[in-house]
Structures are given as C-alpha cells and as structure tokens.
Design brief:
The complex is a heterodimer of chains A (192) and B (201). Chain A is mainly α and 192 residues long. In chain A, 69% of the residues lie in helices and 4% in strands. Chain A has helices spanning 8-15, 21-29, 31-48, 59-64, 87-113, 115-145, 150-156, 160-185, and strands at 74-77, 80-83. In chain A, 6% of the residues are buried. Chain B is elongated. Helices cover 67% and strands 0% of the residues of chain B. Chain B has 201 residues and is an all-alpha fold. The longest helix of chain B has 23 residues, at 25-47. The chains are: A mainly alpha (192), B mainly alpha (201). At the A-B interface, helix 1, helix 3, helix 4 and strand 2 of A face helix 2, helix 3, helix 6, helix 7 and helix 9 of B.
C-alpha cells in the first residue's frame, strides 16, 4: 500500500466524480482516505443543500430609493429610435459638430470674399471637364469604328426601312425589359 | 417602426446592464431580482445578523447600481457583485470584529424576540430533501460549523460550495491568488469535517 495519502487536488477531483486508476487503487487499500473522501462528500452535499435566504419584502424599492437612474438617452422621433449621447460621447459629438460648422462657415465667408478667384477656378474646371468629355467621346467613336462588325451594322441601317424596323425592335426590347423589371421589384401581394 | 424590446428575464446580465445604462429603471430592478437572494445569503452567513445583513446587502446594491456606468462588460457581472458584497461584509466584520456567532441569533439582539428574529431559519426556500429531518440536522450542524470558520475561509467555502463559483472566479472575487483560494477551501473543508465530527460526538 502506498504511504502517500490523497492530495487536496485528488480529493477535489473525487468531489466532481473524477477518479484515476491510481486513486481508485489507493482508496481500495487506505481506510483513512476513504473516510476523508466520504466525509468530504457529505460536507459538500450539506453545503450545496443549504437554503438561500431572502431579504424582507420591498428590498428592491428600498435600494432604488438611493440609486440615481440616468435619464433615458433614447429618443423616438417619427417611430425611429435615436440614442442621445451623454458624457464623453456627448463631448465628442459636440466637438465634431463644432468643427464641421466652423469649417462650413469659414468656407462660405471665404467664398463670398473671393468670388473672382472662385469663378476663375470654376471656369478652369469646366474647361478641363469639357476637354476630357470630348476626348472620351472621340476615343469611343474611333474604337467603335474600328470594330469588325461596324461596317455590317452601318450597311444595315443605310436603308430607311431597315433602320425603322431596327429602332422599333430596340424599343420593343427596352419596353419588355422595363415591364419585366417592374414585375420583379414589385412587392408581393398578400393572399386573400 | 421601432422593434419591441425583448423581456428582461430572457436577457444576459450584460444585456440587462446595457439596458440599465440607457436609463431603464426596470433593468435595475431585474439586476436586483437576480442577485438579491445570493447576495443576501452570502452576507447573512458572513455576519449572522438579519438586520445587519439587510443593511449591508442594500449598501452592496446601492454601490453596484450607482457605479453601473463604470462596470466593464468583459468581466462577469456576478463576480463584480459578489466582490462588492464580500468586501462590504468583510469591512463590517473588521469594524465589529464579529467572526463567531450563535446559530440561535445575533449577539447584538437585546431581547429574546430580537434573538428569534435574527436567528437562521433553516429549511426555508429549500428543495424537498431538506425538509427531511436528517437534512435539517445536517444543515444546522454545517451552519454552526461555518460560523466557527475564519471569515476568509467562510467567504471561500460559501462561494465555492453554496454559490457554486469556480476557483478562478473566487480568486477574482476575493482578489487572492488561485493557489491561496484552493488552500483556503481545502483547509475550510478539513475544519468543517473535524467540527462536524465533534458536533456529532
């Protein structure tokens, strides 16, 4: 028989039903450890069965009398709930709002005092945009004209009758497409 | 349209705390409802006086709820509550040097009625096995033995085996190293074993 008795951790493991082969064989031989394990179990069962006590009725009312409940920070406007910031968040939100407002005001004041400069910048920007637009259109036209199918399409639309049929066909395809899309995006109706 | 709020009793502690931070008074009351019995039981077993336990439990909840804004959700709410409850009870015991008391009632009770009012009422609110005489006797013996433990052992053993808290959580609640908590619990169980054996003799 081993002279080493069960350690506190081994006794703990026994309480939750974990028993290694070594512990099992030790318990089979050591009456002292068997008695300790058995009394330990009785003590723990006794502790676990101890009742819970309740304070007198009205306990929560007495507590709440001395608790500072913050005012609700959620507001409802037109059915939408908004969280009203408080404390640090309020300070942060106010700082952002002040910065935005100051930036906007400065921008307006500066614009009013420098209309000529602003107009010059506007004209330059428009000219640049105009230039880019034309360049883009010319590049697109050149690209289309170089396509192998271009001559065939051009030949088809050379006759006014064929051109009319082609345009009508395109219009019909577009209309069908619009109708199909409307059906797809419309809300389902409730069954009666 | 705003979605209806789920009932408080279906929410986790963390979610109820979040609601209380929004200024919802019913959330505060839900937190009290969840913890009033465990907190009161722990403090009552620590101080052994119903009136004092009521005051200390009230003090605990007032501290907890007024500081709800400082609670960090990454920690267990129950650990935070028990930590404050235990500190409140230990502070009281240190002030009063009240560590061993009678099962029959508070030593501060001046009249027999007060003694009766402050006595532990064994078997109240317990499952049927405790209604059994043997269980009542064992419960009484254990209560008497717990009274004789050192306060730090008492906190550990109550949190472990009455409240069912894990060793790690107890270490967190009491601010003690894990090894110390294990040692205290083993020593407390040893002392309880010896005391119960003596009581039965």
């Amino acid at each position: 028989m081993s002279t080493m008795h069960l350690s506190p951790d081994e006794l703990d493991a026994l309480l939750v039903g974990v028993m290694s082969a070594t512990v099992r064989s030790h318990l089979a031989e050591c009456g002292l450890c068997r008695a300790v394990a058995s009394t330990d179990r009785a003590v723990v069962i006794g502790l676990e069965r101890l009742p819970r006590f309740s304070p007198r009725a009205g306990f929560s009312d007495r507590v709440m009398l001395q608790v500072d409940v913050p005012k609700p920070v959620v507001r409802s406007i037109l059915g939408l709930r908004f969280r009203v910031p408080t404390g640090r968040r309020l300070a942060l939100a106010a700082s952002v709002a002040v910065i935005l407002l100051a930036g906007l005001t400065t921008s307006i004041v500066w614009s009013l005092g420098n209309r000529d400069v602003l107009a010059g910048w506007g004209q330059q920007a428009m000219a640049l945009l105009d230039n880019w637009l034309w360049l883009g259109l010319r590049a697109l036209a050149a690209n289309v004209a170089e396509q192998p199918w271009y001559e065939g399409v051009r030949g088809f639309f050379a006759s006014p009758a064929r051109a009319a049929v082609g345009v009508l066909g395109l219009l019909a395809t577009w209309s069908l497409g619009v109708i199909a899309l409307k059906r797809l995006v419309s809300l389902p109706t409730r069954a009666a | 349209m705003a979605e209806p709020k789920p009932p408080l009793n279906t929410l986790t502690d963390q979610e109820v705390v979040a609601r209380s931070r929004e200024g919802d008074e019913t959330a505060y009351r839900e937190l009290i409802r969840r913890y009033e019995r465990p907190v009161f039981s722990l403090i009552f077993r620590m101080v052994r006086d119903r009136e004092i336990a009521e005051d200390l439990s009230q003090e605990t909840f007032i501290k907890v709820l007024n500081a709800i804004g400082t609670y960090r959700p990454e920690f267990k709410f129950s650990s935070w509550v028990f930590k404050i409850a235990n500190n409140t009870a230990i502070d009281h015991l240190r002030r009063r040097e009240l560590d061993t008391l009678s099962l029959e009632g508070s030593p501060h009770a001046a009249t027999p009625e007060a003694m009766e009012a402050t006595a532990l009422q064994l078997g109240t609110g317990v499952a049927s096995p405790l209604d059994d005489v043997a269980s009542r006797e064992l419960g009484g013996e254990i209560e008497a033995a717990i009274n004789r433990l050192r306060p730090e052992y008492r906190s550990c053993i109550l949190l472990r085996h009455v409240e069912g808290r894990a060793y790690e959580e107890i270490a967190d609640i009491l601010g003690l190293p894990l090894g110390t908590v294990k040692t205290y619990i083993h020593r407390a169980r040893n002392e309880l074993r010896v005391m119960l054996a003596r009581l039965r003799e």
